[in-house]
Amino acid sequence: MKKIYPILLSGGSGTRLWPSSRKMFPKQFLPFDNNDSLFIKTLKRFETAYFYKATIISNYIHRFLVKDSLEKSKIKVSSILLEPTMKNTSAAVTLSVLHILKKDPNAIILISPSDHLIEEKKFKSFFSKNLNFFEKNFMYVFGIKPTEPNPAYGYIRKGIKIKNNFFKVEKFFEKPKISNAKRFLKTGCFYWNSGIFLFSANTFVSEMKLHSPKTLDTCKQLINESKKQYEFVTFPERKFSTLDNIPIDKDLFEKTKKAVVVPFNFSWSDIGSWESIWRKKKKNNQNVTDGNIITENVTKSFIKTHDNSIAVVIGVNDLIIIKERDALLVAKKDYQENIKDILDNIKEKQKEKFEIGSIVHRPWGSFESIKSGEGFLVKILKINPRSKISLQYHKKRSEHWVVTKGTATITLNKTITKLKENESIFVKLGQKHRIENKTNELLVIVEVQTGKVLDEGDIVRIDDIYGRK
Asked: Would you give per-residue pLDDT tens digits along the chain (469 residues)?
C-alpha cells in the first residue's frame, strides 16, 4: 500500500482575521468553535494508515506556538522546519521536499496549508478510495467546485479528462476580477485552487530544475547548511533571504506541463475572512455572535467580544464587529478585504500594537497585559506545567508577583522559595530571578511592574532552557 508524506505549511500571518489573528499569533493557532485550532484539525486529517507522520514548516517566530500545540494535542510529527523570515510558499515547499528526500528517495508528498477547514471524514475517505490512481509522472492540484464568484480565490481551468475524473490543467488564474469570476462560474469548467498539492518528490525536483533552478539550487545549499536546534531544523538567514518571495503555484505549477486538477467534492474553506467564518457557523436571525452580546434589529452580522465584556448592537446589517482586549474592528462585510491593505500601510511605530496584541505567547506559556499607566504595568502570567521562565534580571524595573492559581517555585538571587495561592514576593531592580512551575497544573501569577521603562527589551537572560538570548 502506498503511503504519503504530508507537509504542513504554517508560516502565514493571517492578517485578514485581525484583530484576533496577529503576526505573532496567526489564525492557524486560533481555537475554532472553542475546540481544536485549524493547525490541529489539519494534523488530525492525516491520522490514517495512508499517511506518515507530518513534516511541519513554520516561521521561526512561531516555533513555540507549534511546539505548545503539539504538546497539548499529544500529536507526534516527523520534523519541524523553521524559516528564518517570512517568505511565500515556494521556499517552504522546496525545502520540505528536499528534507524528506534525504530519508526516502521514492517519497510521495502531499502539501497542505494548516489553516483550512475541511470535512475530515470525507477527506480521509477520498484518499482511501483514490490513492492508487495517482501516478508519479503527474503533479496534482486539488480543486474545489465554486459555489459563488469569489474574486479572493485563485481559479483553475480544467482541460481534457485523463482518468477517474482527473483533468489536465489548462490554465491557472490568480484572483480574477469579479466579472471574470462570474464568467468562470457559468462555464462549469473552473475550480477554486485549494493550495493542496500531491506529487512524487523526484518529479517535483526534476520540474523545479527545469522551471525554477535558482530556487532549487539555493534550497539544496540551505539543506546542506541546516542545523538541529533542540527539536527544530533551522536554516541560515542570509542565504534564505536571497530566495524569491513567490508562491509555489507561480514558481512551478503554472509552468509545468504535468499539472493535473483533482476535484474535491466536499466542504472546504480557507477561512480567509471573517465572512467565511460567518458562513460556516450556526446562525440566529442570520447573525453569528460569540460573547456577551445583546442585539436588536440586527441581521447578517458577525459580532465577537473578548472575555465577558458586554456589547449592545442595534439596527445594523452586514457588519463585522470584533472586539479584543486591545483592539476593535468594525467593518461592512463587503469591505473586509481592505483589512490587509490597511495593516500593510500602518506606520512603522504603530506596527507592534497591531502585530502583537495583548496576549503574548512564550515557550513557557503566555502573558497578557491588562492595565498600564504612568510608571506601572499589570500582567497575567500563565506558566505551563513543568515549565519555567529564563533566569534573568532587569535594569529598569521592579516586579511584584502574586500567585492566584497553582504553586510557584521562585529563584531570587541564591534563595529558592515556594509560593502558593494568595502568597506574594517582591523582585527588586537588578535581582536575578526565575519562576518555575514544577507541578502538573497550570500556574497563574499576577505581575505588577514598576519603573520608568516597562518593555520586553529590558530583560538580561543568564540561563534559558529554550536557547533564547
From this structure: 579 999 999 988 778 899 999 888 999 998 887 689 999 999 999 999 899 999 999 999 999 999 999 998 999 999 999 999 999 999 999 999 999 999 999 999 999 999 999 988 889 988 888 888 888 899 999 999 998 998 889 999 999 998 888 999 999 998 889 999 999 999 999 999 999 999 999 999 999 999 999 999 999 999 999 999 889 999 999 999 999 999 999 999 999 999 999 998 888 888 888 998 998 888 998 999 999 999 999 999 999 998 778 999 999 999 999 999 888 999 998 887 788 788 777 766 577 777 888 888 899 999 999 999 999 999 999 999 999 999 999 999 999 999 999 999 999 999 999 999 999 999 999 999 999 999 999 999 999 999 999 988 899 999 999 888 7
From-to residues of CATH 3.90.550.10 in the chain: 3-261
- What distance in Å separates the CA atoms of residue 370 and residue 309, rounded to the nearest whole number? 13
pTM of the predicted model as reported, rounded to 2 decimal places: 0.90
Q: Rounded to an integer, what distance in angstroms lies between the CA atom of residue 120 and that of residue 335?
A: 31
User: Does residue 190 sit in helix, strand or coil?
Assistant: strand
Q: Where in the chain is the domain with CATH 2.60.120.10?
A: 357-461
Q: What is the distance between the alpha carbons of residues 55 and 107, in angstroms, rounded to a whole number?
A: 13
Could you say which DSSP state residue 214 is in?
A: H
Residue with cell 469548467: 189
Strands 365-373 and 376-383: antiparallel
**Helical residues (DSSP H) of 18-111, grouped into ranges:** 38-44, 63-73, 89-101
The CATH label, of 3.30.420.10, 2.60.120.10, 3.30.1330.10, 3.40.50.280, for the domain at 357-461 is 2.60.120.10
For domain 3-261, which CATH number applies: 3.30.10.20, 3.40.50.300, 3.90.550.10, 3.40.50.720? 3.90.550.10
